[in-house]
Design brief:
This protein is an all-alpha fold. It has one domain. It has three helices and no strands. The mean pLDDT is about 90.
Length: about 80
């Protein structure tokens, strides 16, 4: 499976419910924590299945998505 497109993921945020966006935010926070642990401690990054929403995204992409997700969640309240 090819790398998912960052812009496609960002545009899909407007179609998600508040609950789905909180799940996205939590997944992104967990993934960023895993990336940081890999860099600091050398702990291996857990592999994501090809069907996972964050499969193929790197640390920079995850941070961009997290900031966008936080903005969407704020507007949904």
């Amino acid at each position: 499976m090819e790398k998912k497109d960052l812009n496609t993921m960002l545009s899909s945020f407007s179609l998600k419910t508040a609950k789905q966006m909180r799940t996205v935010r939590n997944n992104l926070n967990n993934r960023i924590t895993s990336f940081e642990a890999e860099m600091k401690v050398g702990k291996s990054l857990p592999a994501l299945s090809a069907s996972h929403m964050l499969h193929g995204f790197d640390l920079k992409d995850c941070r961009i998505l997290l900031e966008a997700a936080k903005k969407v969640i704020k507007t949904q309240k």
